[in-house]
Design brief:
Elements lengths: L10 E7 L3 E8 L5 E8 L21 E2 L1 H19 L6 E8 L4 E4 L20 E2 L7 H13 L17 H11 L1 H6 L2 E4 H10 L4 E2 H6 L11 H7 L6 H5 L3 E2 L4 E4 L2 H7 L6 E3 L2 E2 H8 L7 E6 L3 E7 L10 E4 L7 E7 L3 H11 L7 H8 L10 E3 L17 E3 L7 H25 L6 E5 L6 H11 L3 E4 L4 H13 L6 H8 L2 E6 L3 H22 L5 H27 L1
Parallel strand pairs: 1-5, 5-12, 5-13, 9-10, 14-20, 20-21
Antiparallel strand pairs: 1-2, 2-3, 4-7, 6-8, 11-12, 14-15, 15-17, 16-17, 18-19, 21-22
Length: 560
């Protein structure tokens, strides 16, 4: 990290809230130099099988503890400042980003319902993480009714809203635990909630409000629409709504309480909240139209700015100012990428090759297509283009000669095919995608990066920072503190990218065209109604899991 500091230098802090941990980064305003960082792992991580008190959870649930988010401020921020060796008095702002859609129910003054002793054992009182996929049937109903009524906003979301988003999760809460729903005076994105914790002011950011809250042209879905879904759902927008601010704006000033947590000066600027993927566009110098940023980690989010609005089938949404002010921001994504590779290494790779490094080394030595496999990258459902989290993974072509490295490479390639599907959907709708900037931990895998260049037939630029979201949040903090007039200027001064690190090889690209055609065939057959076996298997699994979960309770009743 660059440690050439001047007496008049000013600094900002970016805090990136991920799926399993939060990271704080101290950045110099003048040039974006990263001076100190620290990570705090969430104590409860992802709550997916049982609540901390022991109550079991059904399949496809993913919850979190909001106290873990506060602990990031208590531990990671002071540690990052200490590692940077800067005078805290020279820090002028703090910005945060969060996974999304990650939402929690609170009281009117922001107290999470799960912190009420009476509600600790109620699953719907907890934070619902982005990967909570138990509301798919609710999303299906929302989509069906929106098309039946020809709601004008549905086209802005590619024709389908996701089970991950605010409305599906809120409707599930109402129908499965109406008491918790009615106790929830706010249903708020974690990004906005943690900003509220920092500055004591309740705000909403245009990014999550647009992409996850269906705010289009200044309007949320109507009360009439919501009541048609469920008579008790008509007040849902009142739980979501709040003071709406653009990205890079100042949400408020750091309170004395938050200053005590973080060790930062009271009164410094707190930037409006943001999403981890979208904020990375600033650190990747990708706020201009046509440069798509793929933030590749456990999942991948694809964001790109466009000069005008277009409706793109299967996308997560298009939002005015959703990535940066002055442009239409487009979002797409894949619900499982690094998680897929990790699953194979942890659960399926035999001893001796059960590491990413060894499997990558072996897989890199084979020509394109030599393994004879095609995989579908739906191990955590499909976010784009199909928007269905009940879909599941598949590998076709295995024989007794198939080796672990063959499967591993096929899984790598499957995620590249999924990204190409997304790019082609953008281009067909008139949204330019000229090149890609890759961010996230998976940039370290050179084989994976070259596969993406060959499959997409586009050069891959690599973000120069290993902490893209945290740097992006710091950039927005600098704007909120008045150090730059706009996100565009701050991005140019503080962002960094390595240009054209990977270029497509024409011969490999042609070979991948043939494999990609087979991927598309499987994609459309199993994802667009040709055979709904994946959905039927999911229903059978859920029924069996429900029976198994009920068995211990039945046994206790017999003993009693």
């Amino acid at each position: 990290m660059n440690r050439v500091d001047g007496a008049g230098d000013r600094y900002v802090v970016g805090v990136d809230y991920g799926t399993l941990s939060g990271r704080a980064l101290v950045v110099r305003v003048g040039d974006g130099a990263e001076l100190g960082t620290a990570v705090h792992e969430y104590g409860d991580a992802v709550i997916s099988t049982a609540l901390p008190g022991g109550r079991p959870l059904p399949p496809d649930w993913a919850l979190q503890n909001p106290e873990d988010y506060r602990d990031v401020l208590r531990y990671a921020v002071p540690a990052a400042v200490s590692a940077a060796g800067v005078d805290p008095a020279a820090i002028v702002g703090i910005g945060i980003d969060f996974t999304a859609c990650t939402v929690l129910p609170t009281t009117a003054d922001g107290i999470p319902l799960c912190e009420d002793p009476e509600l600790r054992d109620r699953p719907h009182a907890w934070v619902k993480l982005w990967k909570h996929h138990a509301a798919q049937t609710h999303a299906d109903r929302i989509n069906a009714l929106a098309h039946e009524r020809a709601e004008p906003w549905i086209g802005r979301y590619g024709g389908k809203i996701s089970a991950e988003w605010q409305y599906a999760k809120g409707l599930q809460m109402l129908e499965e635990d109406p008491e918790v729903y009615h106790r929830a005076e706010r249903f708020i994105e974690a990004a906005d909630w943690i900003v509220w914790q920092l500055c004591g002011t309740e705000t909403r950011n245009v990014c999550t409000a647009g992409y996850k809250g269906i705010l289009q042209d200044g309007q949320y879905p109507s009360e009439d629409f919501l009541t048609a879904l469920n008579p008790g759902f008509g007040d849902f927008v009142t739980k979501l709504d709040g003071p709406l601010l653009p990205l890079g704006a100042r949400a408020g000033s750091l309170t004395a309480r938050a200053a005590a947590w973080t060790g930062l000066p009271e009164g410094i600027a707190v930037a409006v909240g943001n999403v981890d993927a979208h904020v990375t566009a600033a650190s990747a110098q990708a706020v201009e139209p046509g440069r798509l940023v793929a933030i590749m980690g456990t999942s991948t989010c694809h964001v790109v700015n466009g000069a005008q609005v277009a409706e793109v089938a299967g996308m997560c949404g298009v939002v005015d100012g959703g990535i940066s002010p002055g442009a239409w921001g487009y979002e797409a994504g894949q619900s499982g990428v690094g998680d897929i590779f990790g699953w194979f290494v942890e659960h399926a790779a035999p001893a001796g090759v059960d590491s990413h490094e060894r499997l990558t080394e072996l897989a890199a030595s084979q020509p394109v297509g030599a393994h004879g496999l095609i995989a579908l990258d739906w191990w955590n459902g499909n976010r784009s283009l199909l928007v269905n989290h009940d879909l599941s993974g598949m590998i076709v072509g295995m024989t007794l000669a198939t080796r672990p490295q063959d499967i591993y490479r096929a899984l790598l390639e499957s995620t590249a095919y999924g990204t190409r599907m997304i790019i082609e959907a953008f281009v067909e709708a008139g949204v330019a995608v000229n090149d890609l900037v890759i961010a996230g931990g998976l940039t370290n895998n050179a084989l994976l990066m070259q596969i993406y260049a060959d499959v997409t037939k586009r050069p891959l630029n690599i973000i120069a920072s290993t902490q893209g979201p945290a740097l992006g949040s710091a950039i927005h903090a600098a704007v909120a503190a008045g150090e730059f007039p706009s996100v565009h200027e701050a991005s140019q001064a503080m962002g960094r990218v390595h240009e054209a690190v990977y270029r497509p090889d024409p011969e490999r690209a042609r070979a991948y065209d043939a494999l990609y055609a087979e991927y598309r065939t499987l994609h459309d057959h199993f994802g667009r109604g040709g055979n709904d076996v994946m959905l039927r298997l999911r229903a059978i699994r859920n029924a069996a899991a429900g029976t198994a979960a009920a068995a211990p309770e039945a046994a206790l009743e017999v003993v009693a």
